[in-house]
Amino acid sequence: xxxxxxxxxxxxxxxxxxxxxxxxxxxxxxxxxxxxxxxxxxxxxxxxxxxxxxxxxxxxxxxxxxxxxxxxxxxxxxxxxxxxxxxxxxxxxxxxxxxxxxxxxxxxxxxxxxxxxxxxxxxxxxxxxxxxxxxxxxxxxxxxxxxxxxxxxxxxxxxxxxxxxxxxxxxxxxxxxxxxxxxxxxxxxxxxxxxxxxxxxxxxxxxxxxxxxxxxxxxxxxxxxxxxxxxxxxxxxxxxxxxxxxxxxxxxxxxxxxxxxxxxxxxxxxxxxxxxxxx
Length: 279
Hints:
Layout: H1 2-23, E1 24-27, E2 31-37, E3 40-46, E4 49-52, E5 58-64, E6 68-78, E7 84-95, H2 98-103, H3 108-126, H4 129-134, H5 136-151, E8 156-167, H6 170-212, H7 214-229, H8 242-251, H9 270-278
Antiparallel strand pairs: 1-4, 2-3, 2-5, 6-7, 7-8
Helix pairs in contact: 3-5, 6-7
């Protein structure tokens, strides 16, 4: 009798250990467990830690709740201004409802990937090339809204969408380079013209000041001669301004008057000497 009880107890313990081993499940901190009992979804979602299910009756599906980083393959498209581009992006999303992510869609990762590719093509067709190159933040927000709308029904939340790179044809790159070069040349000409205008105004003021003081013109001329002569590799032709002559003329003292002529008395032998000279 005792042996039968011991055997029955050992059998029960063995069956219990086997049952616990078959029913025991461990859900990680970043996971949630969705239980299907005979194919029917149970309302309660198993949290992280140790949990038990009914062997051969329940099926536990673990869903990762971490943020998933998924690259969107590069998509070829034509912008609204008829430019062929190749755009790739990256999408960040996470599961917020584990049961919906398992029940509503067969493979939520694949569904999000296809939706991202379709939305990226749509964004390319609705945007200009300048928007793709310089206004990416607005395009990222529009792309996020386009993907997030259907994803909410799958228990998935789109956290962020970023356009990574925009590839252009070589001909378009050369055209944009020429456009940028022409724009910079235009800006350089405008800056040079503005500098000439300012310099002309300053020169006009300097000429007005020099007109009051003619000696300033001479000093400026000497400064120019010194600056040019410092090179010692060219012939210097020095202009002589008329103003300098006028200045020197005013600075020179007036010439002295010649002495008056003295009348001499006529000589007695004057006529005879004249006749002798004629002979």
